[in-house]
Design brief:
The chain is an all-alpha fold. The chain contains 16 helices and no strands. Helix 3 packs across helix 10 and helix 5 runs antiparallel to helix 14.
Length: about 375
């Protein structure tokens, strides 16, 4: 009698475990994903998706990361760091392009994981995407506020630190009302609709690309090949600034810089996230992803070449390398143009980061 009860209990437990495993690993079929009706407005063209990806990818990397990597990690070999990072991003982008053409639904990696490896992994990846967009939006909002504050000679930070200090470890020294206001403003713009948000993103992205072109053209008149072959004797504080030449921090420094530069290409996945709103997603998503990565690779590599040829790598300002480089060569007007481009770039990056998160939440809600 006891053995019969134990056998029945074991059978019930085994059935429950099997049912749990099946529930956690069940996959959504591609056919059901394609057949499902969407409540989103299909209003985005291939160009809109491309600019959406460019806007999210060309953020702080072009105006900050280039100088940080060149000054203290890779030196002039930051050019190769961006090239390696671009090649790695292309491989990732091709995977996204294939998935996007097969499963053109909102949710990006969440939906792709649900279709290929199962529900539990899609659940984990979905919440990771939400966390990525939340942290990314917060960091870009703070970076935009900090950049504007620097343009005004730190008037805002000095005032708030004096009159509204936050004396709590691990928190900001003052409440960043500007970052909060920018986030609310762009969220309201997104609430107007994807068509209107895409138009604003396209305008700001075009301005940003024109500024990058301005940097490249103007910088060509100030290049000096000697800055790629500075001898050891001319390097101040070599224990900090490296040994000079094209690899002042060695090949390992260039490789380490590639890891940092790869982060600059994170953002093209917003194209897949918004793919459900494309007019022809099977065609638009692959074309938009490849076009976005090609434009961003050129937009990162060419300015890094110009920047490291204009001034010695060790003289770069890690917080604002492009304006400071033009100021060092006496082109003060160019610094104001670059500041305008930086504001547009950071604004579009914040707009597209906020845009991606609700679409992941939507995808997690509608899937079953």
């Amino acid at each position: 009698m006891l053995s019969a009860k134990l056998s029945a209990l074991a059978a019930a437990l085994s059935s429950a475990v099997e049912h749990l495993v099946q529930s956690l690993t069940r996959r959504k079929s591609i056919k059901s994903s394609l057949d499902a009706e969407t409540k989103l407005d299909k209003c985005l063209s291939t160009i809109d998706l491309t600019f959406l990806g460019i806007g999210c990818t060309l953020g702080s990397g072009i105006y900050v990361v280039i100088g940080q990597v060149a000054k203290s990690i890779a030196g002039p070999s930051v050019v190769l760091s961006f090239l390696i990072a671009a090649l790695a991003s292309v491989l990732a982008g091709l995977s996204y392009a294939e998935f996007g053409s097969r499963v053109p639904r909102a949710g990006s990696a969440y939906v792709y994981s649900y279709v290929t490896v199962g529900e539990i992994w899609a659940f984990v990846i979905g919440w990771n995407l939400i966390l990525e967009y939340v942290i990314g939006s917060a960091s870009v909002a703070r970076a935009t506020s900090t950049y504007i504050d620097a343009m005004t000679h730190h008037t805002m930070s000095n005032f708030l630190t004096e009159h509204a200090p936050i004396n709590v470890p691990s928190l900001s020294p003052y409440p960043d009302f500007l970052a909060f206001g920018l986030t609310i403003l762009l969220s309201v713009i997104l609430c107007l609709g994807m068509r209107e948000s895409s138009l604003i993103n396209n305008i700001f992205t075009i301005v940003n690309l024109f500024v990058i072109g301005y940097i490249i053209i103007c910088g060509l008149f100030q290049v000096n090949a000697h800055n790629w072959s500075i001898p050891y004797e001319e390097v101040p504080h070599p224990e900090v600034n490296g040994v000079g030449g094209f690899f002042p921090f060695g090949v390992l420094g260039m490789a380490a810089g590639a890891g940092t530069c790869f982060y600059c290409f994170v953002g093209f996945d917003v194209i897949a996230t918004a793919g459900e709103e494309a007019v022809n997603p099977q065609k638009a998503i692959p074309v938009a992803i490849t076009s976005c990565l090609a434009v961003c690779a050129v937009a990162y590599i060419l300015p890094s070449i110009i920047l490291t040829l204009m001034v010695p790598y060790y003289s770069l300002d890690p917080l604002a390398p492009l304006p400071s480089a033009f100021e060092l060569v006496g082109w003060y007007v160019a610094a104001y143009v670059i500041d305008a481009g930086a504001i547009c770039s950071l604004a579009t990056c914040l707009l597209t980061s906020i845009c991606g998160m609700p679409r992941v939440v939507y995808a997690m809600h509608v899937t079953d």
